[in-house]
Amino acid sequence: MLEEFMNKIKLYIISGFLGSGKTTLLKQMLTQWQGQKVAILMNELGQFNVDSTILGDDTPMNELLNGCICCDLKSDVEVQLHDIRHRHQPDIIIIEATGVAHPVEIYDACLAPSLTSYIQIQSILTLVDGPRFLARAKYSVTTVQLMEEQVRYAHSVMINKKDLMTEDEIDLVRQQIQQLNSTGDIYVTSYSAVPDSVFELEGKKRESHQHLHHGIQSMVYTFSAPVDSRQFVNWLRELPDSLLRIKGYIKFRENPGQVVLFQYSYGIPQYEAEDMNLPLKLVVIGEQLDKNKILDQLDQLQFS
Ligand SMILES: Nc1nc2c(ncn2[C@@H]2O[C@H](COP(=O)(O)OP(=O)(O)OP(=O)(O)O)[C@@H](O)[C@H]2O)c(=O)[nH]1
């Protein structure tokens, strides 16, 4: 059974390297969505969140301080998102990640099986500091890779700090972004000022997601009964590289009373016995997911 999204909280992830204009974009989103109930989850590497003072007290804000949600604070994201949902019942949640966060890891952190019935990830918006991106060769290989992956996995890329670039530089950075991400929407901005229509468009496009095949995507499958473990392993063996992560709860026919926490990352599966009787949901994350094919394959596992 494929879990669809209706009346869920819309989640936007703002990604982008240090100082690229993420908070500046966040402020714009809050202005744009004044009529809606918006809550923020802010992640800072340090102990103090400077941006909370910039944003004021009007919007509910949870904070994840002193670490990065894509690694050491990953499991806290689930707790914080549940907390925001219970305390504020927002229409929209915006996550501002740290500048060093990897977008796939944040996406993954927001897709805990316990959240997928309530929250729908709408979009990863990546801010690029145009001049810094052009000069990225001066950084370490790891930093360059991170900057490029933030672009690669975005649904929309804002090439920011247009005011600090010549027309030729803007063309060059646009070409480089297009090479990294040929399907995402690209905007060239000053002070993260995207046209108002972008936010409406984002929502509409995600809702008609069947027509949208770009960027990182997810699907949730719910099993109604245990599956055959050998068939499951055979299914894993055939998965394409574009499938980035799977996680969730499953039962196998050999031991049908035991719930198993299953995680699959970089092609490596992990199985762990789970004490609680949790719903048997699998979250699948990948690029250009062929959802119908995966749905058929999981149905086959389930019903064969
Ligand atoms: N010249 C120029 N400055 C900008 C632009 N956009 C943002 N800034 C400035 O760049 C600095 C960083 O902007 P932020 O919005 O705080 O960036 P951030 O990505 O949230 O930064 P961190 O949270 O530190 O990673 C601020 O001083 C902004 O005023 C722009 O388009 N042009």
From TrEMBL:
* Coiled-coil intervals, chain numbering: none
Q: Which GO terms describe its cellular component?
A: cytoplasm
Give the SMART domains listed for this entry.
CobW_C (SM00833)
Give the keywords, sorted.
Chaperone, Hydrolase, Nucleotide-binding
Annotated GO MF terms = hydrolase activity; nucleotide binding
UniProt keyword Chaperone, yes or no: yes
Task: List the catalysed reactions.
Answer: GTP + H2O = GDP + phosphate + H(+)
Q: Provide the CobW C-terminal domain boundaries.
A: 216-302
Q: Does the keyword Hydrolase apply?
A: yes
Pfam families, alphabetized:
cobW, CobW_C
Q: What family does the Swiss-Prot or TrEMBL record give for this protein?
A: Belongs to the SIMIBI class G3E GTPase family. ZNG1 subfamily.
**Name this polypeptide is given:** GTP-binding protein
Q: Which organism is it from?
A: Macrococcus brunensis
